[in-house]
Amino acid sequence: MHLQSFLLVVISLSCGSLPPATVDYSRAIPATMGMIAAWWILCHLAARTTARQVQADRIDPLVGARLLEKQLDIFRWLALGVVVMCLGGFGIARGLDGIAVLEGSLFLQSLVLLLPAVMLVSASWSAEHRYGVLMDYAECGLKEHIGSVVRSFRSSMAWLVIPIMILLGLADGVSRLPLTEIQAGLLMVVVSLLFVCAGLPWLVSRLFKTSRLDDTTEAWVRSLLFAARLQRIRIVRWQTGGATFNALITGFVPPIRTLLLSDRLMDELPRDQIAMVVLHEAAHLRRRHMPLRMLSILPAWGIGTLITRIAGDAPYAMAAGSLAGIVLTMLILRWVAYRTEFDADVQACRLAEKISGDVEEVPTTYASAAAALSAALLRVTEGHPETRRRTWLHPGVVDRIECMRRYRKTPATNNTTAGTVANPA
User: Fold this and answer.
1) Distances in Å between the alpha carbon of 295 and those of 70, 168, 262, 403?
2) What is the tens place of the pLDDT at every residue in 182-225?
3) Among candidate residues 52, 194, 215, 68, the one with its CA nearest the CA of residue 135
4) Phi-psi region of 211 (alpha: psi -120 to 50; beta: other; left: phi over 0)
5) Average pLDDT of 393-399?
6) What architecture is domain 177-268?
7) DSSP-derived 3-state class of residue 237
8) Which sequence ranges are marked TM in the entry (predicted)?
9) What distance in Å separates the CA atoms of residue 176 and residue 236, rounded to the nearest whole number?
10) What is the structure's pLDDT at 415?
11) Are the C-beta atoms of 224 and 362 separated by less than 8 Å?
C-alpha cells in the first residue's frame, strides 16, 4: 500500500475524533462537493494539457506520461489537506452524531468520512484513463472509464478501506446484541481475530483474478514450499494481463493461505529466479512477518490512547491521541517493514542453499541464490526507475542487493525474535 493511500484513509477516519460542533450541512455539503468537483476539473485539465503537448510533438510520449504521473501524484498528496478542510474545516466530520441516520453506526459514519478521500483520489485515476483515451491506448466509453477507476481502487485503497468497513460493520452488529459491555468487547475481540486470520486472507485472495497453474509448474512450486516446510497453501496464477511482476502470500494460518504468482512473473523470469521469489515469500511466512507487522501497530495506538487519557476532558484530547497514533504507526511500520524485507531476502538465500539438493532448478549456494534474487529484483523493476527507490514499506532494490551481499560476506546470527536479522560484525 502506498503511503498516500494509508494517510488518506487514516486521516479521514481520525477526523471523526475532532471535537463535536453544530454544523450547517446546507453549507458544508455544497462546499465539499465544490472542492471535489474542482479537483476533478484540475486533474482532467492536467491530462488534457499534457496529451495536447504530446500530440503536437512538443514532448515525447514517455516524457508526457511521466509528467502527468508527477502532476497527479502532487494532486494526491494535496488531497490530504483538502480532506482535512472538508471534514474539519467545513465541519462534515464534526456533526455526524447529530444526524439520526448515522447516530450510533460506526459503519455509516466511517463511510461518510472516507467518501471525500475516495472521490478526490478517483479524480486522478479518472484523469489517467482519460489521458489513455486521448493517446489512443485506452478504450473510450463510460463502462470502460468506470471499470478503470474501480480497478485502480481495488489495487490501492481497497486493501485498507474494505477490511476496515467490514470490521466496523461487524462492530455495529455486535453492539446491537443484548450483551453487557464486557461481553460485547470480548465478542468483538474474537470476531476481529477470526476476521484477520480467516476472513481477510479470503477477501484479499478474491480481490484478484486468478487461475490454476499448469500441473508441472504447480508441482514444482509445491515442492519448493514443501522443502521449506510449508504445506496446505493454495497456489494460483495471478492474471494481470501481463501488467504486473509480483508475488504475494495472503494469510498466515493454514490452510487459509494463498500464494499468488503473477502471469508476467511466471512467463518472463527463468526458473531459478522464480524459485527465489517463491522462497522470499516462504521466508515471510516462516518468520511470521505478517503477524509481526500487525502487532507492531499496537504500541503506537497504545501510546495514542495514553495521550488521549492524559489530555482528559480537553477538546483536543481525541485528536491529539489520533495524531500521535498515526505518526508512531508510520515510523514503527516503516522500521519493521524494512527489517522484515531484508530478513526475507537473506533467509530465502539460506533456504535455497539448504534445499537445492531436494528441488530442481534452485541455486545451490548462498552466492548464486543472492545473484538470482538480485537479478529478479532488477528484472521486475526494469523500465520503472521509480520502483527501484525506497518507499514507505519497501527498501530500495540497491539496498536489498547490498544487504544480501553483506550477509554473504559476514554471516549473521539470527535474533530470537522472528522477522529480524542481527547486524553483521
Assistant:
1) 34, 19, 28, 25
2) 998 899 989 888 887 778 777 776 777 889 999 999 999 999 99
3) 52
4) beta
5) 90
6) 2-Layer Sandwich (3.30)
7) strand
8) 27-47, 74-94, 106-125, 152-170, 182-204, 292-311, 317-337
9) 39
10) 46
11) yes
Q: What is the CA radius of gyration of the chain?
A: 24
Above 70 in pLDDT, residue 315?
yes
Contacts of 152 (CB under 8 A, 6+ apart): 122, 125, 128
Q: Hey, what amino acid is at 280?
A: H
Q: What CA–CA distances, in Å, run from 76 to 126, 146, 237, 388? A: 13, 19, 32, 21
Specify the pLDDT at position 1: 60
Phi, then psi, of 259 in degrees rounded to 5: -100, 120
A 10 A CB-CB count for 241 gives 8
Q: What is the pLDDT of residue 411?
A: 53
d(CA 70, CA 378): 23
Pairing mode of beta strands 247-253, 234-238: unpaired
Percent over 70 (pLDDT), the chain: 95
Q: What residue ranges do the domains of the chain occupy? A: 3-175, 177-268, 287-425
Give all strands of the β-sheet with 234-238 in edge-to-edge order.
Answer: 210-211, 234-238, 256-262, 247-253
| Pairing outcome for strands 256-262 and 234-238 | parallel
Return d(Cα 110, Cα 113) in angstroms, integer: 5
CB atoms under 10 Å from CB of 184, counted, come to 16
Cα dist. 139→8, 133, 148, 153 in Å? 29, 6, 10, 18
Cell numbers standing for residue 264: 508476467
Question: What amino acid occupies position 332?
Answer: I
Complete DSSP assignment for 141-169: SHHHHHHHHHHHHHTTTHHHHHHHHHHHH
Contact 124, 72 (CB under 8 A): yes
Instruction: Give the number of residues written for the chain.
Output: 425
Measured CA distances, 285 to 131, 233, 340 (Å): 40, 11, 11
State the virtual CA torsion across 377, 380, 386, 392 in degrees, nearest 10: -60
Q: Is the peptide bond before 255 cis (omega within 30 degrees of 0)?
A: yes
3-state secondary structure of 35: helix
Q: Is the pLDDT of residue 6 over 50?
A: yes
Give the Cβ contact number of residue 105 at 10 Å. 19
